[in-house]
Write a structure and sequence with these properties.
By secondary structure, this protein is mainly alpha-helical. 69% of the residues lie in helices and 6% in strands. It has helices at 2-15, 31-34, 36-54, 58-86, 93-100, 108-121, and strands at residues 21-23, 27-29, 104-105. Strands 2-1-3 form a three-stranded antiparallel sheet. A hairpin with a 3-residue loop joins strand 1 (21-23) and strand 2 (27-29). Helix 1 (2-15) packs antiparallel against helix 3 (36-54), helix 1 (2-15) runs antiparallel to helix 6 (108-121) and helix 4 (58-86) crosses helix 5 (93-100). The longest helix is centred in the middle third of the chain and has 29 residues, at 58-86. Keywords: Membrane, Transmembrane, Transmembrane helix. This is Transmembrane family 220, helix. The chain crosses the membrane at residues 7-25, 37-54, 61-83, 103-122.
């Protein structure tokens, strides 16, 4: 089962380079283009989860998997909030909603969340 946890960790790390948000005109953004502090936090949490996998500490892996899920949810919320906030200067709310709606989430989030859920829900066997 350690291999499944490593697969989840690889999915999280690779997912940080996949398209996560589509911004019109500028194109797709990955975690590093969204915010490199959040991307750094993702990698630090992933490194800590790797430490837990190597040391067969299921509690550490599960804890950092949950932190990764919370980080991803926060990033999605912050992205949507920032999109609405960015267009708040427009005089009509419908214009703001329309322009903020042009910023779309991409398929990379599926990979990110799948990897984090694998870290949380896969149990590793203790070495005898």
């Amino acid at each position: 089962m350690k291999n499944l946890q490593l697969l989840g960790l690889i999915l999280v790390v690779v997912g940080s380079f996949l398209p996560l948000v589509h911004v019109p005109i500028t194109g797709n953004w990955n975690y590093w283009k969204l915010d490199y502090y959040l991307a750094g936090a993702c990698w630090v949490f992933s490194a800590c989860a790797l430490f837990g996998i190597i040391n067969n500490s299921q509690k550490v892996v599960k804890f950092f998997g949950i932190l990764l899920i919370l980080l991803f949810a926060f990033t999605i919320f912050a992205t949507k909030y920032q999109a609405f906030n960015y267009f708040s200067f427009l005089p009509f709310k419908s214009w703001t909603e329309t322009l903020a709606g042009t910023i779309k989430l991409q398929w990379g989030w599926i990979v990110e969340f799948l990897g984090a859920f694998i870290l949380v829900f896969v149990k590793s066997k203790k070495a005898a």
